[in-house]
C-alpha cells in the first residue's frame, strides 16, 4: 500500500480507501448503465451476434471515463481523478485534448 500511496501521491490510507471505493462503484455503474445505453442505441445481441460484446466494451470505455470523474467528484477526490484521467487519455494517444501545463 505504501508504494501505491507514493505512486499516486496519496497522503492517507483513508484517501486510498476512498479511491478504491470510487473505482469499484465506477466499474459496476458503467457496466450496469451500458446495457440500457446499448438498447437505446439499438445495439442488440440478436443483431450483432459475436460483435455485441466488443461493441458494448467500446461504449463502456468512454462511459467509464466520464463516470470516474463524476463519482470521484462526489467523493471529494476530483483533483486525483482528473489528473488520473488526463494521464490515462495521454497514454491512449488523446493527450492533445488538454493544454500543456507549463512548469
From TrEMBL:
Transmembrane regions: 12-34, 54-82
Top-level taxon: Bacteria
DUF6787 domain mapped to chain residues: 18-96
Keywords: Membrane, Transmembrane, Transmembrane helix
InterPro entries, sorted: DUF6787 (IPR046714)
Pfam families: DUF6787 (PF20584)
Full protein name: DUF6787 family protein
Species, as recorded: Flavobacterium flavipallidum
Amino acid at each position: 500500500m505504501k508504494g501505491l500511496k507514493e505512486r499516486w501521491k496519496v497522503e492517507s490510507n483513508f484517501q486510498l480507501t476512498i479511491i478504491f471505493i470510487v473505482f469499484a462503484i465506477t466499474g459496476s455503474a458503467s457496466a450496469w448503465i451500458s446495457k440500457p445505453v446499448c438498447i437505446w442505441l439499438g445495439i442488440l445481441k440478436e443483431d450483432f451476434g459475436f460483435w455485441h460484446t466488443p461493441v458494448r466494451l467500446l461504449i463502456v470505455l468512454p462511459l467509464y471515463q466520464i463516470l470516474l470523474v463524476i463519482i470521484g467528484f462526489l467523493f471529494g477526490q476530483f483533483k486525483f481523478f482528473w489528473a488520473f484521467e488526463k494521464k490515462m487519455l495521454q497514454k491512449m494517444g488523446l493527450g492533445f485534448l488538454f493544454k500543456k501545463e507549463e512548469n
